Amino acid sequence: PTGQRPQRPRSNSGRELTDEVHIEILASVMIKNLDTGEEIPLIQAEEKLPTGINPLTLHIMRRTKEYITNDAAQSDDDDRGQAPLTDTDGGKLKQKTTRLKKFLGKSVKRAKHLAEEYGEKAVNKVKSVRDEVFHNDQDDPSSSDDEGMPYTRPVKFKAAHSFKGPFDFDQVKVVQDLSGEHMGAVWTMKFSHCGRLLATAGQDNVVRIWVLKNSFDYFNNMRAKYNTEGRVSPSPSQESLCSSKSDTDGGMSSVPEDPEDKNLPFRQIPFCKYKGHTADLLDLSWSKNYFLLSSSMDKTVRLWHISRRECLCCFQHIDFVTAIAFHPRDDRYFLSGSLDGKLRLWNIPDKKVALWNEVDGQTRLITAANFCQNGKYAVIGTYDGRCIFYDTERLKYHTQIHVRSTRGRNRVGRKITGIEPLPGENKILVTSNDCRIRLYDLRDLSLSMKYKGYVNSSSQIKASFSHDYSFIVSGSEDKYVYIWSTYHDLSKFTSVRRDRNDFWEGIKAHNAVVTSAIFAPHPNLIVPQEAGAEKVQHAGALKADHTEVLLSADFTGAIKVFINVKKY
């Protein structure tokens, strides 16, 4: 014998995956439906997924071998008798199955990427998935609106069945459309603290910064001052110098935009675009002095500054970074939450993890993170529905809330997608994938209010407050933007459960899943107070003027700006 070992079969990694092999793999992985407990092959689960699924959800589904169907939106412990208010599309599944088959037929070359392609594009119910997601017809500014709703027309308004008004947002208008820039979904949008800059990011790996027209000179001068002084970055990482240059307005930055559109709040082109991430962006966080952190599925967090074109620092993690937040009182520190189950408090000047802690339990994925009580506590949200508090000073465990209903299908905790503090009252607003938003009182961890009406069973959609905390806004998988009053206006309702708020108002201006919706923190910068000055000065009016500015973004990359002037 020559001593040769028998030839081992070559692994698939060496050659292109064929369609058949891929289907085999998808068919052999079993996934559990969390709603019914039944196990089905991954390929079927991916067909059943709600439209507008995002890659993070797909990744978590593969990793945990669990998924949730869209009907989780409907039933709950305290509304079993009611008919569902959301439009469920019964015919979608059949269409989707046939589309998947067609899709498979064509994609021999792309079989390797089948799952990603499917997750990002094929689930969007559009005439031509590709064109819509990638805005191929760029000359048509309203290409993402196949129902023909250019932004000059009023938006469609609806409200909860039992809610007869008076409404706060039935007169809302779309005043600007920032679509056509993002290729694919926008997963996150954040205003700077001053309210003059907006950062948007998502599927195309690029962070875009938009500036209010009336603030352009201020930031442009700041950038010019930095660049003429010829300083180099405060010790950027080597690779960021070569790879992460950002585009600015192509050298045209000092040219004013055409004056006829004076009343558009934002400049129509981004102030800058930050390139460097190599996968979907998941979260953004601003410091008070215009530093911006971005986190991504490429397992990094990057630091930028509004005056600089290049990335200042790259913080490497070992898994997807789902959430980041600057420390509210000391912006040398930030918190990151990752799918590896660790929360880390980073020291930016030292580029090191100062403190870290780890989530216990079976499913340790961290899916949301923030600070509350002005930085006293760090709080994270997990895939299995827990909100865990740590005291920031030592990052030691403090307490936790299991976010779930007492009865019904939502008694299992679902993925936490967002955590927002309500500062004045020592409360936090928690969004989760059981299609509920909950306001908890941190003094005794009791539930102050539960909001429902929107659909969020598989997305990273998160709710947030208006500038004075009187409203809550959220995107939704049914293509609407949803708004609730934070507290019941008891003059509108006589007998109503004090801790339940089903009295939503909905705005339809998108034709795809609304992935993000936020209020501007300083609406008076965008709508000068004179505009709302015909308000009646009635005796003791607490809310003298309620002009709100809203932004929403969707699965195709469309971004809309709304103004709502409320006269009392």
UniProtKB/TrEMBL annotation:
Biased segments, Acidic residues type: 139-148
Family matches, as Gene3D superfamilies: YVTN repeat-like/Quinoprotein amine dehydrogenase
Regions of compositional bias (Low complexity) in chain numbering: 233-245
Record region (Disordered): 69-94, 129-151, 228-260
Compositionally biased spans, kind Basic and acidic residues: 129-138
Alphabetized UniProt keyword annotations: Repeat, WD repeat
Record-given protein name: WD repeat-containing protein 44
Organism: Salmo trutta
Encoding gene (name): LOC115204325
